[in-house]
Design brief:
The complex is a heterodimer of chains A (206) and B (169). Chain A is mostly helical and 206 residues long. Helix content of chain A is 62%, strand content 0%. Classes of the chains: A mainly alpha (206), B mainly alpha (169). Bound molecules: zinc ion (2 copies). One zinc ion binds next to helix 4 of chain A.
Chain lengths: 206, 169
């Protein structure tokens, strides 16, 4: 172990770089010459060589198949794409991938149907007890702060009611599929689809 | 280097996925952490490619990888540590004779164990050099340190490693 601990030679630190072919011209001659007459450094050099050999004996492992497969396709980007929430810089890559990958296009359509189905849920009437007039009448002795809170609640309730009133609740008997189809068509225009370049019949670079 | 082609993220996953996995595996010592790290890295690459300006692609990629690893280590530290799984070993790439495999496994287990005992900054430099196969210059970019520092980290890392290995090479 003498060589490993020898602190006497300043050439020692160059030995790994020597092994890796990472020495500059001047250093190369210095090290080569020094190794000629320093047994300590020769020993250290041998040890470093062994450590390096040991590292290089480590087998190159195969990454699990699912891992790279997953990495090769789009994931959360698809939803962000549908919602128009991709960063501008991401768009070309995502669109580029969609043009060449049928699997991700299928995923996109499925996600879009799910999204459309969720959006198709009917609005619900606020329950009776939220009745504006009754809330106002209920507690005349409350502090101003409580009143203010109640007022805010009433305002919110009014907005909610109006919102429901001005928007016709869709018929409950709508066939979800045809509904989804219509919405896909609409979403195609709204969300990201318009950014999809028309699939040219020409060659597409993979 | 002027007209360096910027790869797409699919290219990166295809061309570097296995290397990143090996880097991750050697640094963390277990397949689950390695898989997590690869996912994290590829996500960062996907996000980062858009703003990548041509330069040293290897350096850029491995800096992302290395930063993802360090972030993982930081996260881990805040969580209670769980013991490493013993028999949860990833399969070995090549398929030589059973005896050779056994010997190689034992050998690489020793090396892997020793590797995990190296201080982080030595470990990452040695792995980037000997497993990933980067030049010192590229490692310097990846770990954001001067080449001279990389040199001495690799050197000291190898010395420590050799001291921990008991078998004759
Ligand atoms: Zn010497
Ligand atoms: Zn895909």
């Amino acid at each position: 172990m003498a060589g490993m601990n020898a602190g006497s030679c300043d050439i020692g630190v160059l030995l790994s770089a020597y092994l890796d072919g990472e020495l500059r011209a001047g250093e190369l001659e210095r090290v080569a010459e020094h190794l000629g007459d320093c047994p300590d450094c020769v020993l250290e050099f041998r040890m470093l060589k062994e450590a390096r050999a040991a590292m290089r004996l480590l087998p190159l492992l195969e990454a699990p198949e699912w891992l790279l497969d997953e990495a090769l396709h789009l994931g959360p980007e698809l939803s962000a794409y549908l919602d128009g929430e991709l960063m501008t810089a991401e768009i070309p890559d995502v669109v580029g991938h969609l043009t060449v990958c049928a699997r991700c296009r299928d995923d996109l359509l499925e996600l879009d149907s799910a999204r459309v189905a969720i959006r198709a849920l009917p609005r619900v009437e606020p329950p009776e007890f939220l009745d504006v007039a009754r809330v106002a009448r209920s507690s005349p002795t409350r502090s101003r702060w409580r009143l203010a809170t109640a007022a805010a609640g009433i305002a919110a309730a009014v907005v909610l009611t109006l919102g429901v009133a001005t928007r016709p609740v869709p018929e409950q008997t709508v066939d979800l599929n045809s509904f989804a189809d219509r919405h896909v068509a609409r979403a195609s225009v709204e969300a990201g689809f318009s950014m999809l370049p028309v699939l040219a019949p020409g060659p597409v670079t993979p | 280097m002027a007209d360096e082609l910027i790869p797409t993220w699919e290219d990166v996953a295809r061309r570097y996925g296995r290397k990143i996995y090996n880097f991750a595996y050697r640094l963390t010592g277990n397949p689950d952490d390695a898989a997590d790290l690869v996912q994290d890295v590829l996500l960062r690459v996907r996000k980062g490619l858009a703003s990548y300006t041509p330069g040293s692609f290897e350096g850029w990629l491995w800096r992302i990888t290395r930063n993802a690893f360090l972030d993982g280590v930081r996260r881990k530290k805040r969580r209670p540590t769980s013991p490493l799984p013993d028999d949860d070993r990833a399969p070995i790439g090549a398929s030589p004779s059973p005896d050779e495999v056994l010997a190689a496994v034992r050998l690489s287990d020793d090396v892997q164990e020793a590797l995990l005992k190296l201080p982080l900054e030595f470990r990452e430099c040695v792995v980037l050099c000997d497993v990933v196969g980067l030049t010192y210059e590229e490692i310097a970019t990846a770990v954001e340190a001067p080449v001279g520092t990389v040199r001495s980290r690799i050197h000291r890392g190898r010395k420590l490693l050799r001291g921990m290995l008991t078998w004759p090479v």
